[in-house]
Amino acid sequence: MLEEFETDENQTARREGKRPRWGRRLLLFVASFLALCLVAVGGFVVFLDRKASSNISQEDLLPPAAAAPSATLPDGSVVELPKDAGQNYLLIGSDARPGETASRSDVIVLVHVPEDKQSVQLIHFPRDLYVAIPGRGKNKINAAYAFGGAPLLVSTLQNLLGVRIDHVAKTDFEGFKRMTDAVGGVRVYAEEASDEGSFQVREGWNDFNGEQALAFVRERYSLSEGDISRGRRQQAFIKALMIKTLTPSVIANPVTLTRFVDAATSNLVVDKGLDVGVMRGEAIGLRNIRGDDIVFITAPFTGFGTAPDGGSIEIVDEASMAALGKALRTDTMDEYGDVTVTP
Question: Is 341 contained in some domain?
Fold first, then answer.
């Protein structure tokens, strides 16, 4: 599924032949880029750098074989992993509640930044996508994280797509709540209504505080397509948070922006090769990105099924997944939308 990241304002500007205004602003992808941590560079960027650096933790999130020159695809073929086909960032969101020791990767997003930095693609992998996990056989992609943390999830995706994952960032769902409250709430479009107990989500536009946003992105059982619908909700939330962060009430307010940066980075863990300096350099390279240059894609699947253990799964569209991997590997993602197929 391919969805352009475009605001109502940008759509109006496009119809009138104008360049969207906010696209001209210099953005800083603090920590996990578009996955909830997008901020604008203000006049106190050094202070923000220090704030982010003091909050961010670094761990071994990449597998030892991350620098391997090749990967084995699902069909058994071996492909080279080029180093000059842009950068790939894996963003992991864990739904571990406070006090829980186990953790699940309920948000799996691969961010591709092309070599020319003229666009950004965010690829959402549904947690129930049924794939081969190195050393574990076939299972839901979510299980890779449960079995072996971020390194095994990286290996799983590298073999599924035949691409190199350069960096990893992970956070938890509580970060969603804190960031939402830091910017004074967000306005999110819901494709379908749901009953969250303490409040109702109506079809159309909803104004959420942090607690409500957290419930919104967690819900899946009452939605028409389960995890797929939840993935679209998460995309809608990320979009809403990005839009709100780029408003003058946030980027022009040092207090609000500082609170947002603190919320965005306080629960953030990145691989040992990713620091604020690397993020800032990437952001500078992406300074000319406009809203319609950012797209969401859902990893291709053919439909729903049942695993041997009885669990519900999404079945990989092997042809389209191979096409996605090739587009990433050859840095031709701008052409991939023509072949994206999802229910």
Answer: no
